[in-house]
Specification:
The structure holds three protein chains of three kinds. By secondary structure, chain A is an alpha+beta fold. Chain A has helices at 4-37, 54-57, 107-111, 169-182, 196-199, 202-231, 233-241, 246-276, 285-314, and strands at 46-50, 65-70, 75-80, 88-91, 102-105, 114-116, 119-124, 127-135, 147-150, 160-166, 187-189. In chain A, strands 1, 2, 3, 4, 5, 6, 7, 8, 9, 10 and 11 form an eleven-stranded mixed beta sheet that branches. In chain A, β6 (114-116) and β7 (119-124) form a beta hairpin. In chain A, α1 packs across α8 (246-276). By secondary structure, chain C is of the alpha+beta class. In chain C, a hairpin with a 2-residue loop joins β11 (214-217) and β12 (220-224). Classes of the chains: A alpha+beta, B alpha/beta, C alpha+beta.
């Protein structure tokens, strides 16, 4: 039978964990919206103009960046994607080691695709690309006319428009500096960002929400454990009177806290699977890291407060 | 006659059980009385004292103060009555540890809208009376048990109450401190203060003029010395 | 006495008061930012709605793309007057609004202007230095727009002003508006000397557009004007005095007759528009135009609108959860504070304090913290972040009212509804 104290603990932290999950989900979705409304580029992307394409095939761009060659406003070739996972409605994106000529297209392009041997095909310059994924969100956007190609021959142009994109602005800047040092005659241009990030102050608000979420969670942990320590004051004192040493008392509470956290996490997972219906969040590294940090921080605060009380009362 | 209790009854409800603590209490307190209320632990002595001090209401009966019926008062009315007429000294002193001796003794006068000079005068008088002058700027937490008890008494008497109610004044004190506290009560009584002390210590009750015994929720007839 | 008790309260509870102050400040900043954000979102949406919903927008281009055709037309004696009359007819039409935009670059002698403002920079073109009459010029991005266009796109000035009707009358100095990115380079009142279509023009900066001002142009609903110099499309009523002037006016008018016709999206209005256009063409004896009758704008506007709505819903969910947790936090803190302070309040009550004293004390304790948080929020939103308006800050202040009420009601209720006034041993400090 779960005691009331533990029930309060479990309920409270279930709500907090769900809040953390919602923030992660919000960030994921927000990033998707930014991508979808900016033609599947982040706000960090930068552009190079070059007559020579070959050097770009061997340019080192790190694990978190990607490289495209724009053929026209709606069509681009993917040179390097490094396990990028853009918002895909159906199918999958290009993965490392993919063979053959593949395409990932917007909803409108899919409707115009040919059917060949049970596969959907689009053509460019007499080359056929198999559609393996459909980009976009569950609403219409200009990304519905987008075509991303992989593996085929990039049509010869007088000058290629190379796009370097990634999740970290700092990394993009560093790579750009390196490339410009290596090839000083290259033309580099900062493009105009479009979409929801520019039309509204969305990115700023995202940062503010994240900051608020972080501070709120820290405050909540601290205040809850101040409250929790008060609840256990008597119990603590009795254990001390009975001669149980501090270490054993601490261990007893660590077990108690971890058990309650386990219940909270289980209930939260249930919520994520049944209410949010999104299993992808559960495997997000960010969620696992944050939850681990969160549990660790809570244990440290709880024990710190307890120890403080012990030292004060039992000195 | 200063304060009279007639057929006072008080019960406490604990979950589903009702426990009668005071059963038909009758008591008269005259001006200048020096009363001890004795009884075993759990007999209801502190409850009786709290009723006298209007800290808690009673279930049935009548309380008469200065020939005026003081029926069930509202929260604010009880505060007002307490402010004007009652001084209370508790067993745990209940001083405020974030201020010094002077500020603690001054506390009741803050609620009485007196002039600053008058307040200073009254507090200094009490400090002198209780031999606390050299401690006035000292923080409460730095005082011994006996010194804290004296501060608690000072706080209770600074407003010149009609009745001084004292709950187990020597419960947590050593013999020497106990004697000095009782000497203070003797001195206050000699100055005309009406004192009611709840105690189970015969050393305290022997100094009082009247002793009451509380047993089975009933108060015995006073033993007058 | 209240002030003294307040000071003692804050001394006793400095940590928790700071805690509460920081938490409420951040909460208020969040709410203030949210309201401002939603207001901007709704404003953006309603702005676009006004422009695109229920409107049919048709593009019109001239037929003289081919060089030969162009030359054939230009050598006609009355070609310029035909263009002028046609343009004037469009500009003064009753059944539709005529919007014309051109992105002809201008030349400027100031070489220190960063390359990002240069014409062709975004397309990776090398920025050339143009040598004219022994002077070196830099080609700079610029847009020419008529008054109807400026009104239609609701261009707003963050500093200075945007054009009014007088600015479209030919004068010695051309009033120009600069995009937001020019803020660090020029200021309102600065005089510039430019070369536009080979003509020397003196300009004066009358204003800077708001950041991220945009128009619909070149099939893009988000054509941002931050890096552009905007010039008014003047109507050159007077006859050209020289061949150079004639050529200059001709080039201008060829730009001006390429534009967009905007009318209400119903059969009657569209028919009237067609009829009037035909009549204008007849009157001006000019029929060298092609009418593109497709309407991509509404769909594009709807796309952005849907994304904005999606964004708004997402943020509302997170904000609601944030609010709930903030409320839980406030209640926890209120409860802990009640536990901490009950001892003191009980001692006051025993000494004869009234309920009203305790309530006033509790109210002031929290009100001062909330007031400090409110003022901090005001400073942060107004001076540091420069977002929102006064109404936004007041809305954020409602949080403070809620906090005060919940703290006072919750805490005082617990304390004073207790008829038994006693101090338990465990309440001792």
């Amino acid at each position: 039978m779960i005691k009331l104290k533990n029930l309060i603990f479990i309920s409270f932290f279930t709500v907090v964990i769900i809040f953390i999950v919602q923030i992660i989900f919000y960030n994921m979705r927000q990033n998707d919206l930014v991508l979808i409304s900016n033609n599947f580029y982040t706000n960090n992307y930068t552009v190079f103009y070059d007559q020579d394409l070959e050097k770009w095939r061997n340019t080192e761009i790190g694990d978190k960046c990607r490289l495209f060659v724009e053929y026209d406003n709606n069509t681009r070739f993917c040179l390097e994607n490094n396990e990028w996972n853009p918002p895909i409605i159906k199918g999958k994106f290009f993965s490392k080691g993919l063979k053959g000529k593949k395409a990932v297209v917007g909803k409108d392009i899919e409707k115009q695709a040919e059917h060949l041997n049970g596969k959907k095909i689009i053509s460019l310059n007499n080359e056929k690309y198999e559609i393996i994924g459909i980009l976009g969100g569950d609403f219409t956007s200009k990304s519905d006319s987008l075509v991303l190609l992989y593996g085929g021959e990039i049509p010869k142009q007088n000058r290629y428009k190379i796009v370097l994109d990634g999740d970290s602005k700092k990394e993009i800047r560093n790579i750009t500096k390196r490339i410009m040092r290596q090839y000083p005659n290259l033309i580099h241009a900062e493009p105009d960002i479009e979409g929801v990030a520019r039309v509204t102050g969305t990115l700023f608000f995202q940062r503010l929400l994240n900051l608020n979420g972080f501070i709120l969670v820290c405050f909540l942990i601290f205040i809850f454990f101040a409250f929790w320590e008060r609840m256990h004051k008597k119990e603590n004192y009795v254990l001390y009177l009975l001669g149980v040493n501090n270490k054993r008392i601490m261990l007893y509470y660590i077990r108690n806290i971890l058990a309650n956290f386990t219940f909270s996490i289980i209930v939260s997972c249930f919520y994520i699977l049944v209410v949010m219906k999104d299993i992808n969040i559960l495997v997000q590294p960010a969620l696992i890291h944050i939850l681990f940090g969160f549990v660790l921080l809570s244990v440290v605060i709880a024990l710190g407060l307890l120890r403080g009380t012990m030292n004060k009362n039992f000195a | 006659m200063l304060l009279k209790l007639q057929h006072i009854q008080k019960s406490f409800i604990n979950g589903r059980t009702k426990r009668a603590v005071l059963n038909d209490i009758n008591m008269e307190i005259s001006k200048g009385d020096y009363i001890a209320i004795m009884g075993r632990s759990g007999s209801g002595k502190s409850t009786l004292l709290n009723i006298l001090g209007t800290l808690i209401p009673y279930d049935k009966g009548t309380m008469i103060y200065n020939n005026q019926k003081v029926t069930q008062l509202s929260f604010d009315q009880r505060s007002e009555f307490r402010k004007r007429h009652i001084g209370f000294v508790t067993q745990q002193f209940h001083l405020l540890h974030d201020r010094n001796v002077y500020e603690n003794i001054k506390l009741p006068l803050n609620f009485m809208k007196l002039e600053k000079d008058k307040i200073k005068k009254e507090v200094n008088k009490v400090l002198e009376m209780l031999d606390l002058e050299s401690f006035q700027k000292v923080s409460i937490s730095k005082l011994s048990g006996g010194e804290q008890q004296r501060v608690a008494i000072g706080r209770a008497i600074v407003k010149k109450p009609d009745i001084l109610l004292v709950d187990e004044p020597t419960g947590s004190l050593d013999e020497e401190s106990e004697k000095s506290i009782l000497d203070i009560f003797d001195m206050l009584h000699s100055q005309g203060t009406t004192i009611v002390i709840v105690t189970h210590n015969t050393a305290v009750s022997e100094r009082c003029d009247k002793n009451y015994f509380l047993k089975g929720g009933k108060l015995s007839a006073p033993i007058i010395y | 006495m209240l002030i003294k008790e307040l000071i003692l309260f804050y001394k006793r509870n400095l940590n928790i008061c700071l805690f509460v102050y920081i938490q409420i400040t951040i909460f208020m900043v969040l709410i203030g930012t949210f309201y401002s954000f939603i207001y901007d979102l709704d404003f953006e949406n309603s702005d676009m709605k006004k422009m695109y919903e229920d409107n049919a927008i048709y593009q019109m281009i001239d037929n003289y793309v081919d060089g030969n055709e162009f030359n054939k037309f230009v050598v006609q004696k009355d070609s310029l007057s035909k263009l002028k009359n046609f343009y004037n007819g469009l500009e003064n039409a009753e059944s539709f609004h005529y919007i014309t935009i051109a992105n002809q670059h201008l030349l400027i002698t100031d070489q220190s202007i960063p390359d990002k403002f240069a014409y062709g920079y975004a397309n990776g073109m090398e920025v050339p230095s143009v040598n004219v009459d022994n002077k070196v010029y830099k080609p700079i991005k610029s847009l020419q727009i008529n008054l109807n266009g400026a009104k239609f796109f609701n261009l707003k000035a963050a500093e200075g002003k945007v054009w009014n009707e007088e600015d479209f009358v030919i004068q010695n100095t051309m009033p120009i508006i600069l995009g937001d990115s020019y803020h660090d380079i020029y200021k309102v009142g600065d005089k510039l000397h430019i070369k536009y279509l080979e003509k020397d023009i003196n300009c004066i900066v009358i204003g800077f557009l708001e950041k991220n001002s945009k128009i619909f142009y070149q099939n893009n609903l988000e054509f941002y004007l931050d890096d552009y110099i905007l010039m008014p499309m003047w109507n050159y009523i007077m006859q050209p005095q020289s061949e150079f002037e004639a050529r200059y006016q001709m080039m201008n008018y060829f730009n001006m007759i390429n534009g967009y016709l905007v009318t209400k999206n119903n059969k009657n209005d569209i028919n009237r528009m067609m009829q009037e256009l035909e009549s204008i063409s007849k009157d001006a004896s000019f029929d060298g135009y092609t009418f593109i009758g497709y309407n991509p704008h509404v769909k594009k506007y709807q796309d952005i609108s849907v994304i904005l709505q999606e964004n708004k819903n997402l943020i509302k969910i997170i904000l609601t959860m944030s609010c709930i947790l903030n409320i839980i936090l406030i209640l926890f803190i209120s409860y802990l504070q009640y536990k901490n302070e009950r001892y003191y309040y009980n001692v006051f009550l025993i000494q004869g304090a009234k309920k009203s004293f305790i309530i006033t004390l509790k109210f002031l304790e929290i009100m001062l913290i909330v007031l400090a948080a409110f003022l901090t929020q005001l400073y942060i939103l107004n001076h540091l972040l420069k977002i929102g308006e006064f109404a936004t800050y007041i809305k954020a202040g409602y949080i403070g009212v809620f906090v005060i009420l919940s703290y006072v009601i919750f805490g005082t209720n617990l304390l004073l509804n207790n008829k038994e006034l006693k101090i338990d041993k465990e309440e001792e400090v």
